[in-house]
Specification:
The strands form 2 sheets. Strands 1, 2, 3, 4, 7, 8, 9, 10 and 11 form a 9-stranded mixed β-sheet that branches. The chain is an alpha+beta fold. Strand 5 and strand 6 form a beta hairpin. It folds into 2 domains: about 100 residues, 2-Layer Sandwich (Alpha-Beta Plaits); about 90 residues, Alpha-L RNA-binding motif (Alpha-Beta Plaits, 2-Layer Sandwich).
């Protein structure tokens, strides 16, 4: 069987798996969007997160991109409640303690304006008296609900979370629910990781 490599824009409220045994088929899964069999997500996005997923049947590549020891970068746009100050941003950059362990240093930028994203359905809660801000955050580890736990630790809870990149792979050109095969140019750096 030849290897397949797909990029998928996971919408909000979709499970990051192909089956759902726990809800009598009520919750949406990857199977509702991706008709390709035998591929699996590299890493995960929580049901309440959106954005870029790489799906493949190439096991060694999956391991290489998922195992924290390889420190493969993943980039997120994170809408947080209120506007983080310099101290909170520096804490995120240096690493914070979540679940008893310090996170690796992260690259964190306060975005000057809201990124151009499709509206989320349902939209995030809006509070007239509480401003929000957007961060671009790049991690080299993928702990359970890590971004949400990190922003909560510095007292700026996450409202919306969108993964925009996995290494050099970008979300650009996909709408929520769409998928496509990787181009040869996108695939070459990934194949080099497995040599």
């Amino acid at each position: 069987m030849p290897y397949r490599y797909l990029l998928f824009y996971k919408p909000y409220d979709v499970l990051c798996q192909f089956t759902d045994d726990g809800s009598n088929g009520v919750r949406r899964t990857l199977k509702d969007y991706v008709p390709v069999t035998g591929v699996y997500p590299v890493g995960r996005l929580d049901r309440d997160s959106e954005g870029l997923l790489l799906l493949t049947n190439h096991g060694s590549l999956q391991h290489r991109l998922s195992d924290p020891k390889f420190q493969h970068p993943r980039t997120y746009w994170v809408q947080v409640e209120r506007v983080p100050d310099a101290a909170a941003l520096q804490q995120l950059r240096q690493g914070v303690i979540i679940q008893g362990t310090k996170t690796r240093p992260a690259t964190v930028t306060l975005l000057a304006e809201e990124p151009a994203l499709p509206p989320r359905d349902p939209p995030i809660r809006f509070r007239k008296t509480v401003p929000t801000a957007w961060l671009e955050l790049t991690l080299t580890e993928g702990r359970n609900r890590q971004v949400r736990r990190m922003t909560a630790t510095v007292n700026f809870p996450t409202l919306r979370l969108v993964r925009t990149a996995i290494g050099h792979l970008q979300l650009t050109g996909l709408a929520p629910g769409q998928w496509r095969d990787l181009t040869p140019a996108e695939l070459r750096p990934l194949q080099a990781l497995c040599q």
